[in-house]
Each structure stands twice: as structure tokens, then as C-alpha cells.
Amino acid sequence: MVKMRVLVTGAGGLLGSAVASLASEKHEVFAAFNKHFPSCGRPVKLDLLDGEGTAAVVAKVRPDAIVHSAALTDVDRCEGDRDLAERVNHDATKALSESAKRAGAFFLYVSTDYVFDGARGMYREEDQANPINLYGLTKLRGEQAVEASGTEFCIARGSVIYGAHPAAGKVNYALWLLENLRRGEHVRVLRDQHVSPTLNLSFARMILEALERRQTGIFHMAGASRVSRYDFAVALADAFGLDSSLVEPVNMDEMRWVAKRPRDSSLDVSKAASLLSEKPLLLPDALLELKHALTGGNES
Known about the structure:
By secondary structure, this protein is of the alpha/beta class. The protein has a domain at about 5-165 and about 195-225 and about 265-280: Rossmann fold. About 40% of the residues lie in helices and about 15% in strands. The strands form four sheets. The chain has a seven-stranded parallel beta sheet, sandwiched between helices. Helix 1 crosses helix 7. The longest helix has 22 residues, at about 80-105. It is globular and about 55 Å long. The protein starts with a strand and ends in a 5-residue tail after the last helix.
């Protein structure tokens, strides 16, 4: 395998940090960040709102591949600030993918299950996207910009990404649940929203394989289990020996969100399971790996 120069955006984030760490074992990694300093790779300051600066960074690094995992993922914030969401999730993606084309770099864009409306779930890659909020819309526009850039690309969609460590100043969904349950606090969790929870380490392994094999097109690289957020929380509690009765089921219509959420944005991962050596993980296997990562292998 040829050693590559890989530029990872959002390298201080939950997924980007996992990609940068994994890729650093085999490749030369340039870890792009804005506010949250990366833990591995050669740090590169990158402001996604600066199109010219973005192009200059790519020209200087001369990457063989770019993983664009940075995004504005706060769904309600996107709804309240359309301009910012558009600039980060679409404009920056357009600038990066066009820079990738000029550099001859393979471009992998991390997208989301929220490009779908959630009317039926278990979406395949070829299903029609129909986002119902601005986050999903701007991420879809990012996908379209990548496709129009002319560069060799892969679009990798995930769903409810979680991992063993806080990243980019945020505690992910699984850690939030564990922290509350360990304190004996009740958590209210949706029973009527279905997703495909995705362990960041598993997602990162699939991304790296796609880069190394230059797999093109759209791939759903989410977890292999369709579950409600409530069922995910109960499974997490059981896996860690915590009191699952603290998990209280609630319905989506009880939530006071700014933005709409899809009811069932679960993803069919059969394409990734068929074409990649790194397979999407079923939830029990993913939780076992999460537990191993949190305990350092010491589960006594």
C-alpha cells in the first residue's frame, strides 16, 4: 500500500479525531482544525468560512486524499442561522472539493442520515433525499457540490455518531447517557425516532478503507442495527451494567425543538457490508468495542 498525504478536516472532532488517529498509523496526516486542537497528526489551522484560505491550505499541503468531516451539526442552530449553516456545510464543502480537484486528491465527504425525510427508514444509497430541516438540506447541498466538483469522490453517510471520548468540546450521545445513568439520574429518550447508531471507530475504519481503495460513490457506513433511541439507551445501560429503568421513553411530539427531525432515518448498510472488508457493526458488537475503549481492556 502506498503511503498517502491525508488532510482531515474537523480533526479535533468525534469522527475526525478517530480518522486522523487511525490514518496516522499508515499515512502522513495533516490534521485541520479551527478551535479544537487535534490530538494527532500535523496540526493545520483551517477556517472553513475562508474560501481563499481553504484553497491555500490544500495547495500548500498537496494531499493525496481529503476527509472532510468538519460540519455545523447542531440541528437547531442550523435552523436558526441559515447563512452560517449554508457557509459551513455547503460553501466550504464546495471550496474544498474544488481544491481537491485542482490537487488531484481523492475527496471523502462525511454526510448524514438527515438528508432523508424519515418517512419509512432503512434508506439505501440510491433512495431520493428529501431533508426536512436546514441541517439536512445544507448537508445535501454539500453532497451535490462534491458531485459537481469533478473530483474523484466518496460520500459516506453516518447516523448518531458516538464514541468513547468527548471531542470538540462536546459530550456525545452515548457518553451523555452513561454519565447520567452512572449518577442515578433519569434520562428521557425518544421511543419513536429510529436511527442507525454509529461507533466513531467503526466509521473511521470504513472511511480509511474507502480512501485506500479509492471507493467512489455514496456509501452508508452507519451501524448495522436499526433501533429507537430508547432501545439504544437501554442496550447501552445493559452493556455497562447500569439501571435501564432510569431510561424513560418519550415521544417526539413532546419535544420543543426549533427544527423538525426525521422519525426514521435508519440506513441500509448492505452496500458497505458487501464491498468493504471493514463491516458495519451490529449494536451489541459496537457496544462491546465501546466498553473496551472506555475501560482500556480492563472490564473487571
